[in-house]
Design the sequence.
């Protein structure tokens, strides 16, 4: 996200909206490969759909059996794909800023599908698009991010981008889970205050992997203290919306019956993910001069 | 299969025959995903071929790395695929009637690729098509299903559908492997009587996983008592045919040299599998009013 | 490679060159499946790209979950794919001459993607094409293959084919790693002599799996004795080239900074792999009379 100006972000949002209402198609086949060194079926499927809707061919890549397991560097893996004719790679990798070793050294286009605990630009862009569809602006919106702020790349990217676009970002959830650095971007608020005064409630997934329930909280305790219950939903501001990056722990972050309620944008976020990724693919391909005129809009 | 009337079944058979002789193609791209929570390469490849022959794009789905492993429900997984734009899912799942939790709650089209020990409609339909190609009717045909009736979803679905279509269904094989419930549909016959008097012999796979040979039977003993040997094949009724859902244990259910003999329809069943699955995909898509006119026949 | 005459080889090379400069496309969809029973992402991706560039549809095949794991024979697996409509299979298998059990028994087209320690024709053809692009002939070229000759299918296939095409083949590397049989094709030379007098240096990968460094050589010792160092590169014959089948152990077979130097054809070999595989696919499909006119060149 750091590479994008505010204008770039608005350009991706507007182009995603245009794609959603019409369509975008490449004039001839281009080749994409999705290098997911961390599991994330949801993000991978969404990129694959975006690539196919643009008319790209997708070359399958299985990180488990790749030569990288024999000690090949990420650079050599990507360079190999470039050599066989891949035009764009989407990479998700556990290492923070893995892309530093690739930038300026390869000719194909790259999209970051998530790195370590750092960035997750396509998730961030789809969240921005979803908010934009409701409010048509970010200026002055009160947006509260709730949950495990410290370990969430979504929280970090979103907080920074939303602040840059003019929103008032706040954080809520267990105090121990806050991120001291992000506290310079927005203040901590009690959850019940957040529920009543926010335009957007962005609930984060509680990662069982990280927080063994029973240790700090039982599922029931978390839901009672920091979960969106039916009672809290009734106290939400008129017109305000609920977001969640999914998969949802039903009955923990959000009551089961609220996941598809009127205020919920959760499945809409997933649909928007495809449009945003199409726009991002178009964006990186168009940065290569020769590909500028390859799109039929 | 319970959802299909006899007319529906004949409609699928006739449309599979039409597809086999000509072709069917969707006018614009549709998106399919194959959710195989149980391994079945054969069925999965066949559906994938059917989808591609119809002109669909297939979004890859790896059940091993899916969010369902993090506790996501099947409903949320399917709903996610719907949200990203998948038009039809084929699901194979170890749980009986897994589809009950989905029916009426999702907008995309679904095909059951096999559930628990219950149903396996596409296998059933391809068996029906194969018989129909030889006899052009089911009325009065003597059809014997041989082997592990009790643990076979193929046996169950086929027996019920064939009986409904007017065939005389019989069972043979080790007495311990019979299914008391299915005995209301047809009687038990000695294997040598079945060999001589059946129009169709449907041999089932002996599942090594389930029946450790050496415990009840050695492979040789099973072959001698319930296997189709060269000697038995010679005593089969004129014009009668041999079927098997595959993979065959050569030299157990069927003598090696009979697998591709004149009476054998085993590889033809596999070819028919693709046509039937194309017809089923067409069938479910056409049930969505808006898609009725999307096929070029 | 044994099946190909010298004329066949030149035909594949010339058709790969034509494809590289123009393109080849099938007039209607054909279906390919890549059966990789041994991991080799590089070769598999390259074949997949070749198939897609020809306009083929690729049916996914996962060797780990295939019925072959339940004891199905390779013949039945291939015959199944033929039955569902696959036109061409590419097979990589750990067993030497696995294809003997298939030849003449199946109707679809087959390409050997590597068998046991025996053959790896597409790697061989891409190496030939790469040399041909520089020298436009093989006659009289001095070509030295360096490294673990004994365990390399690349070394074996290349040595035989290059000799047949008129090149003077030599071998270098640790004496213990030489292959007595291949010594009838070419002589052993000291590495420093090879560096100075060869037109082509084909470096082989040191397989950590096989040669635990520290036992025979440390990485540093191997590099000092048999590796292409910056110093050695300076003493190479004018116009001579460096090849390697990849993945390279940077700093072992070749100094890190030489992998992409002017003399290196390493990434060009990978690009050529796609063109050669397209030519091979075209070659086997055209051997089936009915498919001869299906290509738009």
Sequence:
């Amino acid at each position: 996200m750091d590479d994008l100006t505010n204008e770039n972000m608005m350009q991706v949002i507007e182009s995603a909206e245009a794609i959603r209402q019409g369509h975008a198609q490449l004039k001839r086949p281009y080749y994409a490969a999705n290098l997911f060194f961390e599991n994330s079926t949801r993000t991978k499927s969404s990129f694959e759909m975006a690539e196919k809707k643009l008319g790209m061919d997708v070359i399958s890549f299985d990180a488990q059996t790749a030569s990288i397991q024999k000690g090949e560097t990420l650079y050599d893996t990507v360079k190999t794909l470039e050599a066989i004719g891949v035009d764009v790679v989407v990479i998700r990798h556990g290492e923070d800023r893995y892309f530093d070793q690739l930038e300026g050294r390869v000719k194909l286009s790259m999209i970051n599908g998530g790195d370590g605990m750092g960035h997750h630009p396509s998730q961030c862009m789809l969240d921005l698009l979803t908010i934009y569809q409701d409010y048509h602006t970010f200026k002055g919106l009160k947006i509260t991010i709730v949950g495990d702020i410290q370990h969430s790349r979504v929280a970090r990217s979103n907080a920074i981008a939303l602040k840059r676009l003019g929103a008032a970002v706040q954080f809520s959830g267990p105090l121990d889970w806050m991120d001291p650095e992000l506290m310079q971007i927005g203040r901590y608020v009690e959850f019940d205050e957040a529920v009543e005064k926010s335009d957007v409630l962005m609930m984060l997934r509680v990662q069982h992997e990280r927080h063994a329930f029973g240790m700090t909280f039982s599922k029931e305790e978390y839901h009672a203290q920091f979960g969106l219950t039916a009672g809290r939903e009734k106290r939400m501001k008129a017109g305000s919306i609920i977001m969640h990056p999914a998969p949802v722990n039903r009955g923990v972050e959000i009551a089961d019956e609220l996941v598809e309620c009127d205020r919920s944008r959760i499945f809409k976020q997933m649909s928007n993910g495809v449009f945003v990724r199409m726009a991002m693919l178009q964006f990186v391909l168009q940065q290569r001069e020769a590909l500028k005129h390859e799109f039929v809009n």
